[in-house]
Amino acid sequence: MTSNTGTNMIEVKGLRVVAGAAPDPVVEIVKGVDFTVKKGEVLALIGESGSGKTTIALALLGHARGGCSIAGGSVKIGDTDVLSLDAKGRRALRSRTVAYVAQSASAGFNPARTIMDQVTEPALLHKLMTPAVAREKAISLFRSLALPNPETIGDRYPHQVSGGQLQRLMAAMALITDPAVVVFDEPTTALDVTTQIEVLAAFKGVVRELGTTAVYVSHDLAVVAQMADRIVVLNGGRVRENGATAQVLDAPADEYTRQLLAATRRPEVERATPDDARKVPLLEIRNLSAGYGRIDANGVPAVRVLDDVSLKIARGSTLGVIGESGSGKTTLARVIAGLVDRAHGDVLLDGESLPAKLSERTLDQYRRVQIVFQNADTALNPSRTIADILARPMNFYHGLRGAAAQKRMLELLDLVKLPASIAKRQPGGLSGGQKQRVNLARALAANPELILCDEVTSALDTVVGAAILDLLAELRRELNVSYMFISHDISTVRAICDEVIVLYAGQCVEAGQRDALSHPPYHPYTGLLVDSVPALRPGWLDSRRAMALGALPALGPESDAPELCSFRSRCAARIDGKCNVTPPAKKTLPSGAHILCHHSADDLARMQSMETVTA
Amino acid sequence: MNRNVTSHATTVLYDQPPADAPQEQAPVVVRRGLMSRLVNRFSVLGLIGLFIVVFWLVIAFVGPVVAPYKGGAFTSTEVFGSYSAAHLLGTDYLGRDMLSRILYGTQYTVGLALAATVAASVIGTFFGLVAAVSGRWVDEVLSRLFDALISIPSKILALVVIAAFGSSIPMLMMVAALAYIPGAFRISRSLAVNIMTLEYVQVAKARGEKLFYIARVEVLPNMIHPMLADFGLRFVFIVLLLSGLSFLGLGVQPPNADWGSLVRENIGGLAEGAPAVLMPAVAIATLTVGVNLLIDSLRRHGARSHGGGQ
């Protein structure tokens, strides 16, 4: 793939970037970084947030973010010394030599113009091609990036394509000028696992096809393992390790790299003893349906998000809820918390019905169910101190004030492993992981019995997320709380949950013990999710891609039966005449999991183990 | 009270010293001079704005005391007199001392505008919060009501009301406030609606908090910065509205005069460039510029602290 004899395309020497101007205190963000990238090579910059990876990536374009400046060192791309260029030279550099693919594609497109206009804009703006040639070029790029309908997708507007497609279109925009170097800045971080691998495969294909030199910024080692030839591990603005992908993954030389790898390969926690299976479950949901929009005569909302979901959570155990975005996971938590009305079904807390409307619940019911949101930034009131935030639920539920509240607050901070001095700060002065801990502490302040964790680790770095998961497991042992743990990440769910349900389009397609996820057979959708989690070894993506390229079996016209399998449009194992005609029946797999599928357990086991062998 | 002993048998409490250590540092921060904190908080332009605004506020209170002559006293035989030692800012069309006229007028312009702006912003913010926090119907009714009000041009509204009920200080204040309530309502409502969707408000709702608590603690403090900026803008608009009304002869009635009336009274001196017509205009200009500089720096400060929060 890459020739070791190639010349250096990128040469970074002693790069230093600082924040703040001279009279004020200056913080060094990047502290003397060196690396080189050969022509046609893919280099990954990996590290936690705050490690300076994006700052370095931007320095390759000769750009420093507002308030920062490049203080020293040199950046050479080809024969050009980027840092010595003037504004005009840098503009020319960015037009044809270096291109940038940002993390949020939806923020990178103008919703008022067609995709084709925007993809061809860099080429037209710098007068590199005629409009017709640029169009041709764009269409061939769309084809290389495996976008559907490459001829016509350019006529659509950004909101008419999916997030994963938009991310690929963003790459097309970057590649249209045939740049020598492309910088990918966490381009798949915001995507679902299933979408992520499509996008990764497209990126990998196009980079290989065009022989582009690429710098790939990410915090996810498994993703990087698929993309990169070399990995540079960063921490605190310094290079900790720089080596070939296989070496970094298999024989890491640096302590920090080992720590990163350990956080990625999480051991599974002990399962809670299923002691009181016969007792009343802490939370039981029966045939729950919910949604948004106008409610019709049958009491069914216009947009159905949850459809006939049933589940049980035993006291002291953890239920994992997995699904892609849009599968209704968050709505499920919000319905239980009373933030979204339900259309049908019952929610029972400890055997007693929990009213649908928040205003009809008792103080005790409020207290027993607490919710922790994904985004720690918006889940804490920025104008209050941590002490205020934690004091409120204590006062509200337990009437604690003064010294007693102070004592309890210190206890809580200790419980979530935060220093007591943090109590006087405001959320703005805390890191993401600290905020998430405060978030947890606020839920714990109520002495809840059930905590609804909505993607609590998704926005955090691997190492920080792993620490939060450990904390959750520890709290469960100490306080015997139950969790409903919502995530799109199978490995985190495996790490913490006793039981798992898999949601697809609001339907519970599989429900079972945690072990149901570890080996086939499982529901075809669960299988897709499991297979989409990047494995921590190079070459995984290529083998998987070869397998996934097969076309889906054809489906005939559909019957009007209302409860057809919702996954039939994406299922690789669908059966014409069954999946499109009759609703699937509930089956029990050998693992004890219940699934909704037409295939028998043996069929699924055969198909899925075959896939695993080829992979 | 006994809650805290129930569940965490294994928890080790922090010793007292770590909890107290930050407290000992706190007074040091407070003792830092007021002046240096102000300098840190505002930019140079913001400080200039602050200075001008404070200056005019002080004049509004002490103006009549420090004025060299009584407000309506005829002090000179010369009309439209120029700058002189006896009359620093010259004399007006009847030979009255211009400096004293302006000092006396300050309380009408600044006081009236301030009262009207406070009324408009407080009432608008209150209803905006109510609309955002309560259910759909309350929001719908309030919004349409204020939409109806906003569709009437403020100057026309003021002219009609004053023509119907006559001009008096309370009436002017009411009219100015009424004209600017819908704007404050719109802004506070849209800010509050955005904040209501944030997760900390959702958490408060799920905790079972009452609407009043959510509005007071979770929403209001987080919209106060933009509302202050809006307050400053609205203050300037109201100064201009009142000055405009006075210029038309519908504002503060003679022999009292606010700055707008002073410009109108002395408009005859415009041809000769008399200070009598220039100086009140300069006063209006400095006040509006000063307030704008101040709120601009407030707004930037707010934006920076928000950015830091993310």
From TrEMBL, chain A:
Alphabetized CDD domains for the sequence: ABC_NikE_OppD_transporters
InterPro entries (alphabetical): AAA+_ATPase, ABC_transp_ATP-bind, ABC_transporter-like_ATP-bd, ABC_transporter-like_CS, Oligopep_ABC_C, P-loop_NTPase
Keywords: ATP-binding, Cell inner membrane, Cell membrane, Membrane, Nucleotide-binding, Transport
Top-rank lineage group of the source organism: Bacteria
GO MF entries: ATP binding; ATP hydrolysis activity
GO annotation (BP), single: peptide transport
All residue ranges annotated as the ABC transporter domain in the record: 10-261, 283-530
PANTHER family with a match to the protein in the record: D,D-DIPEPTIDE TRANSPORT ATP-BINDING PROTEIN DDPF-RELATED (PTHR43776:SF7), TRANSPORT ATP-BINDING PROTEIN (PTHR43776)
UniProt record similarity statement: Belongs to the ABC transporter superfamily.
Descriptive protein name: ABC transporter
Organism: Caballeronia zhejiangensis
From TrEMBL, chain B:
Keywords for this protein: Cell membrane, DNA-directed RNA polymerase, Membrane, Transcription, Transmembrane, Transmembrane helix, Transport
Classification via PROSITE patterns: ABC_TM1 (PS50928)
Gene3D superfamilies documented for this protein: MetI-like (1.10.3720.10)
GO CC annotations on file: DNA-directed RNA polymerase complex; plasma membrane
Domain ABC transmembrane type-1: 106-295
Keyword tRNA processing carried by entry: no
Annotated SUPFAM superfamilies: MetI-like
Segments crossing the lipid bilayer: 42-67, 79-96, 108-136, 156-181, 231-253, 273-295
Keyword Cell membrane: yes
Domain of life (superkingdom): Bacteria
UniProt-annotated location(s): Cell membrane
Pfam families from the UniProt entry: BPD_transp_1
Membrane topology listed for this record: Multi-pass membrane protein
Biological processes, Gene Ontology terms: transmembrane transport
InterPro entries for the chain: BP-dependent_transpt_permease, MetI-like, MetI-like_sf
Family label: Belongs to the binding-protein-dependent transport system permease family.
Entries under PANTHER family matching the protein: OLIGOPEPTIDE TRANSPORT SYSTEM PERMEASE PROTEIN APPC (PTHR43386), PEPTIDE ABC TRANSPORTER PERMEASE PROTEIN (PTHR43386:SF25)
The name this protein goes by in its record: DNA-directed RNA polymerase subunit alpha
Organism: Caballeronia zhejiangensis
